[in-house]
């Protein structure tokens, strides 16, 4: 349940997302996954992110073979058309793309072929199944790193099995896997348990990147509400790597 007033007694000095500068997780290429359906919604999201202080967006369509069988080509083509629309609309925000890869057999095939979209110094955004983790997760992290990629696990706060086994989360962190938290998790977007765990991960300095995971204009509106809610006060004593990508 979305929790706007859950911690309204807090105060935060954060007035926009300029302290991050770059958003590294969203679904803003139209009609290729469960994100924005068209250019009007994409441009509304990007205008909203620009108004909230972001200078750059690295949008990350799903690569999920059974549902969203995107390829490097389809994502790059969609990015090119989106960039044209951004220029025509007169927006100043920079738009780039990588992908969010579900760790499955198809992903392992792409890993072996090297046909993967990354950002920065070979950061690779991955997600896990929500029901059960891959049995060989640690080995997959090892394979990713030995092929020269830096794995970044999307929204670890949303995997209940990792919360129940924090030793496993710590193990892949020690292996070198980075973690990206969804900002709206801090405000109850995915329920109070996820919200609590998100705060815990921040407090334990486990989070390297923050992302919007925006799928629609409503998510951007909620980011604006998040600033006003006081929930971002928890971030003020921590450093995140988003700005290094500017």
How is the secondary structure organized here?
Elements: E1 22-23, H1 39-51, E2 56-59, E3 62-63, H2 72-89, E4 94-97, E5 100-102, H3 105-113, E6 123-127, H4 137-146, E7 150-154, H5 160-164, H6 166-175, E8 178-182, H7 192-203, E9 209-211, H8 217-229
Q: Using only CA atoms, what is the Rg?
A: 17 Å
Listing every helix as H and every strand as E from the N terminus to the C terminus, the arrangement reads: EHEEHEEHEHEHHEHEH
Seen as an oligomer or otherwise, the chain set is: single chain
What is the CATH superfamily label? Metal-dependent hydrolases
Q: Biggest sheet: strands, sense, closure? A: 6 strands, parallel
Helix coverage percent of residues?
A: 25-40%
- Helix and strand content put the structural class at alpha/beta
Shape: globular
In round numbers, the mean pLDDT is 95
How widely separated are the two ends? 33 Å
């Amino acid at each position: 349940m979305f929790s706007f007033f859950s911690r309204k007694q807090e105060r935060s000095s954060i007035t926009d997302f300029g302290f991050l500068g770059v958003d590294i997780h969203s679904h803003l290429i139209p009609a290729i996954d469960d994100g924005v359906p068209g250019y009007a919604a994409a441009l509304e999201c990007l205008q909203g992110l620009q108004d909230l202080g972001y200078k750059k967006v690295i949008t990350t369509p799903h690569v999920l073979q059974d549902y969203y069988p995107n390829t490097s080509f389809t994502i790059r083509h969609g990015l090119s058309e989106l960039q044209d629309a951004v220029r025509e609309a007169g927006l100043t925000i920079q738009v780039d793309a990588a992908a969010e890869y579900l760790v499955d057999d198809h992903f392992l095939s792409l890993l072996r072929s090297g046909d993967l979209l990354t950002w920065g110094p070979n950061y690779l955004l991955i997600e896990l199944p929500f029901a059960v983790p891959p049995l060989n997760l640690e080995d997959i992290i090892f394979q990713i790193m030995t092929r020269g990629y830096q794995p970044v696990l999307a929204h670890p706060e949303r995997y209940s099995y990792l919360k129940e086994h924090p030793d496993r989360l710590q193990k892949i962190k020690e292996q070198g896997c980075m973690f990206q938290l969804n900002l709206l998790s801090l405000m109850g977007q995915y329920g109070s348990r996820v919200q609590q765990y998100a705060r815990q991960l921040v407090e334990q300095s486990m989070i390297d990147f923050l992302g919007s995971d925006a799928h629609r204009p409503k998510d951007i509106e909620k980011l604006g509400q998040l600033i006003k809610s006081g929930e971002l006060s928890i971030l003020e004593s921590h450093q995140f790597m988003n700005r290094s990508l500017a």
